Amino acid sequence: MAIFDRAIVRLLPAVPRPVVQKLSERYIAGPELKDARETVRRLNAERKLATIDVLGEEIRTEEEAAAIVRAYQDVFADIERCALDSGVSVKATALGLKLGLGLCRDNLRTVVEDAASRGNFVRIDMEDSSTTDDTLQLYRELRAEGHTNLGIVLQSMLRRTLSDIEALAKLAPSVRLCKGIYVEPPEIAYQDDRAVRASFVRALETLLDAGSYVGIATHDEWLLGEGRRLVHEHGLERDEYEFQMLLGVRPQLGDELVADGHRLRIYVPFGRHWYAYSLRRLQENPRIAGYIAADTLGRMIGRNGS
Ligand SMILES: Cc1cc2nc3c(=O)[nH]c(=O)nc-3n(C[C@H](O)[C@H](O)[C@H](O)COP(=O)(O)OP(=O)(O)OC[C@H]3O[C@@H](n4cnc5c(N)ncnc54)[C@H](O)[C@@H]3O)c2cc1C
Question: Which of 166, 176, 226, 289 could form a disulfide with 5 if both were Cys (CB 3.0 to 4.6 A apart)?
């Protein structure tokens, strides 16, 4: 990213919320469940799978966490009623992790059980490193209780990831592998993109060797090439792995994967707690400075012209 873009990224939290909302529209299905439903319908028609995320990491109270649980129950009912091809992604913080591990465990169990009763699947997103141990523990505990319809996310930027894969190997976990979006210190995370990529390839190879189902979550063309190479070398059938991308990011690359016969799942966030997610997406957009400049200019012209 150019110096100017990096400077803009640092300034993003100072950008007015309505501007952030407008710039991040393409990353979010909308505020309501019906918005997610329409987006997933469109994706399914394009032969893409989905994972629906109820935005909610900014919750502060038990009641808000309970509302997120209910929102997921509505999502499962809707997926079944409309015969959508979609699972869900949940964040431990949205289910109350910062309010207590026990509360979060109970909420997660409710979501996972509701999903199981409708034949659905729950992926636990991975958040910043202050939550990694708790999130992995929650996953282990629910697996120990006999739940099998849940998966985990591992981040290749974290130095611990290979040892986490070894520690989880006996469970043959379903893993979404991604680079990791959170800013982490050098003691625990690779800072250099080449090292993050190398770690991604090592982790992917180790997971595939161990027979894990992997969601290869990236828009990085080099890594997509490595992913294609590794699934081919492992002789995997179409239903033994998948690629994953975020709504609104490099859709033409996703179309190519689908045209080449790969499974592709799109991450579809919706809901009213859109701010934190939007900031993270904008921070990764290499053209963010241009968008903000164009928006600012547009508003200035609009004001002058009215
Ligand atoms: C399905 C899915 C689920 C994820 N879940 C998690 C999770 O649980 N925890 C977590 O920490 N991270 C998660 N991530 C985010 C991930 O860790 C990366 O931050 C993100 O995918 C960008 O990394 P990349 O591999 O695409 O490579 P990058 O090098 O960042 O991106 C490759 C190229 O894609 C384009 N691009 C990337 N982002 C954008 C954007 N926002 N707007 C426009 N263009 C863009 C750019 O052209 C860029 O050069 C997830 C990603 C995906 C695809």
Answer: 289
